[in-house]
Amino acid sequence: MCHDEAEESMVYSYTKSFNAFAAKLSSDEANKLAARRKFKAETDIIVALFDTGITPESESFKDDGSLGPPPEKWKGTCERSANFSGCNK
In terms of pTM, does the model score above 0.70? Predict the structure, then answer.
């Protein structure tokens, strides 16, 4: 797998509390990665869900348009609610 293909298959990279990544891999790619001694492969694991109590209606999230759209490789989703629909994605 070349660098560009690896970047394309990566879903998310975790670097704050621990170092890990989530990626979409073929069975062959997953088996090759699992065979390496420094990797521990797991599937279908939910790491955590943090309820911060923050809502998109907060003034802190008001988009005045000065930041522009999210980066092309951003894979998140926009939160919508009854009082908020200003997603710039």
Answer: no
